[in-house]
Design goal:
CATH architecture of chain B: 3-Layer(aba) Sandwich
Largest sheet of chain B: 6 strands, mixed
Low-confidence stretches of chain B: none
Oligomer: heterotrimer
Mean pLDDT of chain B: 89
Structural class of chain C: mainly alpha
Strand content of chain C: under 5%
Number of strands of chain B: 10
Helix content of chain B: 25-40%
Order of helices and strands of chain C: HHHHHHHHHHH
CATH class of chain B: Alpha Beta
Radius of gyration of chain C: 18 Å
Helix content of chain C: over 70%
Structural class of chain B: alpha/beta
Distance between the termini of chain C: 38 Å
Chains: A mainly alpha (307), B alpha/beta (256), C mainly alpha (280)
């Protein structure tokens, strides 16, 4: 019971903040929440299950584009568009993950890198369906039960998305499945000897987290009411990886911290170094790996142990 | 006390290209029995071990566990049937504390589906298993360290963790790969006590070992391999004085 | 026929570029197992070096080319020293240097982006525009023959092979692992920088040119196989021909040509991840 209260409290706090912020800050806040959501699911795949993948943003994009295309080009009802979008993400994820389990770990990274690039190519060449390089715009969130959710209420929706994602991942993490994922990360041979079906675990982790990214993408589609290729490119995929590494791979708190830090840092740094903040991120990653591979969360733990 | 054979190995043969590592091996292990497998380097002990554990497939022969053939099954399926193993060079899961390592051993015993996990219905099973894991950690003698970082364990403690982890899977057959290697005398004695305790619970034990001093007082029966072939099989006292064994393996240790 | 010959020469030249990048990967993967995606950015640095020395300062071509090469060797050595050696010495898992190198990739790219204005920068041709393809093919052939001879005939080359086959055994035999690693990274940077320098007259030096080259180079490597030096070149040529033939003769929009290396990469990863040529 108390944990339910805590979740409700967090929901109220995070959503309530939206009503106190100006329009501009609300926009930044929403993007922050979305990045944190993506970082949480990516962290499960990378930090907990040990699979490097560059396709997370591609699935974010598949979710976003598919819901818009199904709604406004095929004129499907809203719930069906959502379900189909999720199904599409699952299908693509399975198509990539299942063959990749036969390969040495890093080959999944390569295959997902190729998938991510391919996705951008398809978007750019998709003509009227995907809107080409300009993408799709000028659509609006359909009415649900007669009302149109907008403004801080939509931010509340994003809060629900974040907390929902966190709840699912947390439960999985603290179960036999989360342990199986970590076992696959730490020592796949020993994991198999203990009865873990390594291939199946990897496929489930990949498909699940990619589907979560897709769902986040669907929510994203109505934040700016525009989707275009650059948003879903490799640059953001790298950024996501960096967030998780700097924050502390393998810990939910690390994902949250890393996402928040790297998302907000440019706002602070831009007076100093313009839009070359990525330089700082790259440097931070190198420093993190060399000095404190457990990231900021690890640093915090270490300080707490030896004050 | 004759009990049922839970592991039956018949005509087991493994060829790697031109090299025959194991040739027409026949033996069995009974419930509650400790079978020691010994032989000089290159005798085929590790290969036999890996064939049973599912690391690779055999060229010929069959292996039956509880009556069912298991040869050629992938390792995780063999574990699910109740055959668990330890590794000679400790292979802990470095990113988890001790108790989580042990809980991975119990992986095949968890009954909750993923849906139950996400729905929050798996907590009771989790608590129960956690309690059992703590008991196992006590049993092997790591009682004060359930939340320790695996990297802080000594080599001997890591070995004990291997055993607790394998036990968590509720095995009916436990495969030990040179468990005494690298341990101090005191640690060896404690290890022997643990293995006796395991066998006393009715679990069959197959023990690959190099160290005769460790094996002779511990094993109920001993099988001796040399050049991939079983050259002797019997009670420890019989093996100790067996001429072929002495010649092949004990050599200058015959005086003990 | 004339048409096809032109295409063949152009594809061969592109194939050589991809082959050089693949070679860069190979030189580093073999002894260390580390996949260094920063090779694309190294190529970019080489291109910018060419712009600086040859366009801006107008050095004579051979001198400029040599200077860029030497500089790249230094860059490779430095990268290894900063991002790889501390981790390997500490016994960190293989993932750690790979990730650190991803960070370095971004650092390289942004460093160039900060230092130069964002437009493409022209790099002069070695012998004139109509001879560039032949120049590329010639230089690449020299490099590959040299590397092949190094691995096949020299003692130092054999020690590379030894490290590639079994690190610990090689160390026990007295081979200096860090020297081999440092050399492999220097060589990789040299090959990549050379590729960048050779391709840039046609495409101009631009700070975004790195990632596509990295992907194409890696595809070439996967196609040809990691086991043999010749595989890198073979993979590069096959990839280039596949690309150009598709663009020329296939009835699909030109933009999809970028998809060719990606599809080939995914296909090979799934069907034949060890590549076409087997290691010996």
């Amino acid at each position: 019971m108390t944990s339910l209260l805590r979740w409700l409290g967090a929901a109220l706090l995070l959503a309530g903040a939206a009503f106190l912020l100006s329009d501009y800050h609300n926009d930044v806040y929403r993007k922050l929440l979305l990045w944190v959501t993506l970082a949480l699911s990516y962290n499960f795949l990378f930090g907990i299950c040990g699979q490097i993948a560059f396709s997370h943003f591609a699935f974010y994009g598949i979710g976003a584009y598919s819901v818009v295309i199904f709604l406004f080009q095929f004129h499907l009802p809203f719930p069906l568009a959502i379900l189909l979008g999720i199904a599409l993400c699952i299908l693509f994820a399975l198509a990539v993950a299942i063959p990749s389990t036969r390969l040495e770990g890093f080959y999944l990274a390569l295959a997902t890198l190729a998938l991510a690039q391919l996705f951008i190519v398809v978007l750019n060449e998709g003509g009227a369906v995907t809107g080409g390089p300009g993408g799709l715009a000028n659509y609006k969130l359909p009415e649900i039960l007669g009302t149109r959710i907008r403004g801080p209420w939509y931010t509340a929706v994003i809060v629900l998305l974040l907390l929902g994602t966190l709840a699912v991942l947390w439960r999985l993490d603290c179960s036999w499945f989360g342990r199986a994922c970590r076992a696959v990360r730490d020592n796949p041979e020993a994991a198999a000897a203990m009865g873990v079906d390594v291939a199946r675990t990897k496929v489930i982790a990949f498909t699940l987290t990619s589907a979560l990214a897709g769902i986040a993408g669907m929510v994203y589609a109505f934040v700016d009411n525009t989707v275009n290729p650059p948003i879903f490119g490799l640059d953001n995929a790298f950024l996501l990886l960096f967030m998780v590494i700097v924050g502390g791979a393998g810990r939910h708190a690390g994902a949250i911290l890393g996402a928040a830090l790297l998302f907000l840092l440019p706002f602070v740094l831009s007076p100093l170094i313009g839009h070359h903040h990525v330089l700082v991120f790259g440097g931070l990653v190198v420093v993190a790996i060399l000095l404190q591979p457990r990231g900021l969360v690890g640093l915090y733990d270490a300080i707490r142990r030896h004050p | 006390m004759p009990s049922a054979a839970i592991l039956e190995v018949r005509r087991l043969t493994k060829r790697f290209g031109g090299l025959t590592a194991v040739s027409s091996l026949d033996f069995e292990v009974r419930e509650g029995e400790i079978l020691g497998m010994i032989g000089p380097n290159g005798a085929g002990k590790s290969t036999t071990f890996n064939l049973i554990a599912g690391t690779y497939g055999a060229t010929e022969g069959e292996v039956r566990f509880a009556g069912e053939p298991i040869l050629g099954l992938p390792p995780h399926r063999i574990a699910a049937r109740g055959v668990l193993r330890t590794f000679q060079h400790n292979r802990p899961f470095g990113g988890m504390p001790v108790i989580d390592n042990v809980l991975v051993g119990a992986h095949t015993r968890f009954a909750s589906s993923l849906w139950a996990v996400v729905g929050g219905k798996a907590l009771r099973e989790e608590t129960e298993r956690r309690k059992r894991a703590e008991e196992l950690i006590e049993f092997v003698g790591l009682g004060e360290l359930p939340h320790a970082d695996v990297s802080t364990l000594s080599f001997g403690q890591g070995r004990l963790l291997e055993i607790a982890r394998a036990l968590a899977g509720e095995p009916r057959l436990l495969l030990f790969d040179e468990p005494a290697a690298g341990l101090t005398l005191a640690e060896c004695e404690r290890l022997a006590g643990i293995i006796r305790g395991i066998a006393a619970r009715g679990i069959a034990v197959l023990l690959i070992e190099h160290d005769m001093h460790f094996l002779l007082p511990l094993a109920h029966r001993i099988a001796v391999l040399n050049f991939g072939v079983k050259i002797a099989d019997g009670l420890p006292e019989q093996i100790r004085n067996h001429p072929a064994v002495l010649e092949a393996y004990l050599g200058s240790h015959a005086a003990t | 026929m004339q048409d096809f010959l032109e295409l063949a020469v152009s594809a061969a030249a592109s194939g050589c570029i991809y082959g050089l990048i693949a070679l860069a990967y190979l030189l580093m993967i073999r002894p260390t197992g580390i996949i260094n995606f920063a090779v694309g950015e190294w190529a970019m640095v080489g291109a910018f070096g060419g712009y600086l020395l040859l366009s801006k300062f107008e050095w004579p071509y051979p001198l400029g080319m040599a200077a860029v090469l030497v500089f790249m060797l230094g860059v490779g050595w430095l990268t290894e020293r900063i991002a790889v050696r501390p981790l390997v010495e500490r016994g960190a898992p293989l993932l750690a240097p790979i990730l650190a190198l991803l960070g370095m990739l971004v650092v390289f790219r942004e460093a160039i982006s900060v230092s130069f204005p964002p437009d493409p920068h022209p790099v002069p041709y070695a012998l004139g525009i109509q001879h560039q393809s032949f120049f590329i093919i010639a230089v690449t052939s020299v490099v590959f023959i040299g590397v092949w001879l190094f691995f096949e005939r020299s003692v130092a080359g054999k020690s590379f092979e030894a490290v590639a086959i079994h690190r610990r055994a090689a160390a026990l035999m007295g081979i200096n692992l860090s020297r081999v690693t440092a050399l492999s990274f220097a060589g990789g940077a040299g090959a990549a920088g050379l590729a960048g320098l050779l391709v840039s007259p046609n495409v101009s030096a631009h700070y975004l040119m790195g990632v596509p080259l990295a992907i194409q180079g890696f595809t070439a490597l996967v196609i040809g196989g990691v086991g043999r030096v010749e595989g890198a070149l073979l993979g590069g040529l096959l990839l280039a021909f596949a690309e150009q033939l598709t663009v020329r003769y296939a009835p699909i929009p030109a933009g999809y040509a970028q998809g060719v290396p990606l599809l080939l990469l995914m296909m090979f990863l799934l069907v034949r991840p060890t590549g076409l040529l087997r290691a010996k």
